[in-house]
Structure formats: structure tokens, C-alpha cells
Amino acid sequence: MIKRFEEMVIGNVMFPATSALYNRKRILPLYRQFKASEFYPPERLEEMQLEKLRKLVCYAYHQIPFYKKHFDEAGIQPGDIRNTSDLKNLPAVTRQDVIDHHHDMVDNRFRSSALRADAAGRAAGAPILLAPLRKDRLVRNTSSGSTGAPTTFYEDGARTAMNWAHELRLRNWYGIPPGAREARMARVSVEYLKNSKDVLMRRLLWNQLALPGVNLGEEDFSICYESLEKFRPRVLWGFTSALTGLAAYIREAGLDAEVVRPELIITWAAPMYEHEERILKEVFECHVTNIYGAREVGHIAARCPDETLHINEENLLLEVEPGEDLKENGGGEILVTTLDTTIMPFIRYRMGDIGKVSPSRCSCGRSLAVLEDLLGRTGEIFVTQSGRMISPNFWCRTFMNPDLGGKIERFQVVYRPEDTILIRIVKGTGFTKETEEGLRRHLQNNFKGSVTPLFEYRDEIQARISGKYEMVVNETQS
Question: Is residue 391 part of a domain?
């Protein structure tokens, strides 16, 4: 009874009220709206998208210098966008465009605020207290840089509020209400957590425990385990690599997972591959889901209990640009348009990910379109000289082989020119020369001699500064 009362007060009063102080408004109304709209007929969702799209292109053309030039160079006027398919006539926006023109991609009425946000010296993404009362309330943020170079973008709290609302909807899919205890393995260090007032505020007012999620070693995982044992969250949220690292630590240290077991694990910031989902389910014995998205555009899709990745169609439009190697299955590179008129919208933004958009046929009954065959980033897809396409899931299945259990702690695949593949391996206790020979035979059987595998052994494979581990590195594109 006390727990339910705590959840009700924090979820319905403290969390939305304090979020509004950072200009993250209307979280609960959006959440309630999303709970209804996920069951709208597809035709109604399409009408919503088209209405928002028409407003967006008119707004972007008249208020944002980059898009004015972008439309003019393509010979397109806002009135030419009569339906969503007309958007295909506009060239896609790339990450390099954002890197080169991020100031011109901001509503020109907020240009000076963006420049002052650059000079403010705040950490990327750090919210501004009492932002609604301030003249300059723009937050400067950056992407993780996992695709090469980080992008810079700006928001006033609206996109973060949208993300929170989508997360509340996702948790509701698994029967978890607003205000329920949640632990987050975030992009912060142990040292930051010890001295941060923001961390204390989140715990007291949001029922949210912050934990380190980057550059983790055994001592960090030990701190996470002890903190989770005391806090006992219903939701455990974080980078896929951080969560799987914690699961591996608990297993290898022989710790009792029952004392930290949540009801739901939410992974994000990277695709969740089969071998990662397997260890999370085996150790924590709970529901595991995934959010697909990017900091620039927000949460794009989330996986329901029936394991379907539903797209947040209420405020996003997804297109797929077919590639020569993916035409057969209808897949291609994902392009995202943020439909709400925020101060820095993204129109036909090239995500660098490969997937396929399909109508929902999910048994959960939700009509939101689904993202299928999310194979990974374009750089993670390798096409051999013989025309064979290798997706990251091939490597997941390879290293999930039960015969390799305990023999390999971590692996990384490096694609090199001339159809050479380097496989970096951190050996487990059972690794032998026969293990390598078995892997070599497996690759030769699958690639029919068209690829030369090389093996390199390391004591560890470092994560990027963002906290993400790269399963695949494509040096053929550098």
C-alpha cells in the first residue's frame, strides 16, 4: 500500500511538476494521449502524420534557414507536399549536414540563444533549472559519435518530454505505472554520482537511481550491484553493453541475482542482439525490451511484450531508402522526420541504420507500424565480392553457439579491404587451439572461400567513450 502511494504521488505529481521546471512540459497528457492513439486505425494515424507534416514543412521553410535553402535547391515549395510520399522528392539530410550547419538548422528566432548555449559551458544535454522563466532556455546536446563524429543539436525540453512520455507508455506495456522505482545506468562516472545534487534530486523526487554506465570495471559493477540490492527497482534501464556487462559480472562472481531482480529491463543506445538478450534473461529472469532511437530525433520505436518493435508514429515519420543489396526483402536505410514543430526539427534525417517498415500485424493489437529486420548500421553490413551480405546477426549466431560457452568472453569483428575479416577475441577459460580451428571451419563453410578470416587475441576490448561496444568495425569505409 505504501509503495503504491509512493508511486502515485511521484508519478502523478512530483515527476511531472519538477520536469516542468526544466521546460519538459505535458509529459502526462502526452502519455495518456499515446496510450489511446496506439490503438487508432492506421488510416487515422496517417491523417495525423500528414497534418503534422504539412505544418512542419511550412514552419521549417519560413523559420529555419537551412531548410529554406534545402527546399529551394530541390525546387520544392511547402505546398508541394500534399501527402507523405511527396517528401521523397526532398534530398535526405545527413549527419555531416548537421555537423556543418547545426546553427542554420535552428529556428532563426532562437539563433542567438543557440550561440549562447554554446558559450554557456554546460555539459552536453544538461537541463536548465527554471528554464520556462529564462530568456535563453535552449540546451546544447551532442550525439554519442558512434558513427564517427558527434553531431551538435539544440532543444528546449520538448523532445525530452516526448521521450519521457514514450518511456512511460513502454513501461505501461509491461504493467509498470508512472512513479515506479527505476535504476538507470547512464553516461556518468562513479565520481560524478558521489557529488551530484542532480542524482539526489532524481532519487527523492523521481524514484530514479542513477548508476555508472560507461568505462565500467569490476569495482563499478560491484557498486551497481550493491546499490541495486538496496534500492530494489522495478525497472532497470541503460546502455545495452552496460546491462549485459552487469549480468556477466553477476554470473561470473556467483552473486545472487534474486536480490537485484527487476520486473523489466530496458536497453537502448544500440541494437540488442540475440546473445545480449539471452544473458539478460538468463541472469535476471524478467522481461527484456529495447528502445531504438537517437539523441537527435528521440525515441523512434520500442518493443512490446510480443517482441514487435512498434514505431512511435504519433510524432515520427519513417521512410526506408532501398539499397541495391536489400531490395529483395524491402529493406533499406532508415530516414526519420520529426513531425512536431520543435526549434530544431529533422526532416528526412539519414539514420545510418538498415531496416524495414511494415504494417502492424502484432497480436498485441497495437496498430502502430513496426520496424522489422533491423540489421544494424550501414557500416555493420558487409557485402563480399561474391555478393553475399553479412549482417551483425550472423556474428551473434556464430558466437552464441553452445559449444563456445565459457570459451570467449568478448569478440569484435573488423571488416578489412580485399574481403579480409579480423576477429578480435578475449579468451575465456575454456578457449583452446581447437576453438579457433572450429571457428575457422565455420567461417569457411559459410563464406565458401570468398573471405579470409584472421584472429587476434587481446586482454580486453575497450568500449567507446560513449559506453557502447562496437561488435563490428568496418574499415572498408574509412
Answer: yes
Task: Give the three-state DSSP class for 327.
Answer: helix
Q: State the alpha helices, DSSP H only, in 360-401.
A: 392-399
Q: How many domains does the chain have?
A: 1
Cβ proximity of 14 and 182 under 8 Å: no
Q: What is the pTM of this model?
A: 0.84
Task: Please report, in angstroms and rounded to a whole number, the separation of the first and last CA atoms in the chain.
Answer: 58
What's the CA gap between 266 and 244, in Å, rounded? Answer: 11
Does 459 fall in a domain?
A: yes
Domain holding 446, by residue range, is 382-477
Q: Which three cell numbers stand for residue 269?
A: 543506445
SS3 at position 457: strand
List pLDDT tens digits, range 175-217. 999 999 999 998 777 777 777 888 888 999 999 999 998 778 8
Q: What is the CATH number of the domain that holds 455?
A: 3.30.300.30
State whether the Cα torsion 318-321-325-328 is positive or negative: positive
Residue 418 lies in a domain: yes
The one-character DSSP state at 363 is: T
At 60, is the pLDDT very low, low, confident or very high (cuts 50, 70, 90)? very high
Torsion 369-374-377-381 (CA) sign: negative
pLDDT tens profile 366-408: 999 999 988 666 556 676 666 666 767 678 668 766 677 668 8
Which cell is 347 given?
A: 526532416
Phi/psi at 112 (5° precision): -65, -35
Runs of H (alpha helix) within 174-196: 190-195
| Residue 134 is assigned to a structural domain of this protein | no
Which residues does 2 contact at the CB level (< 8 Å), separation at least 6? none
Cα separations (Å) of 131 from 25, 76, 95, 116, 135? 11, 36, 28, 14, 8
Q: Contact at 8 Å (CB) between 286 and 345?
A: no
Main-chain phi, psi angles of 199, to 5 degrees: -65, -45
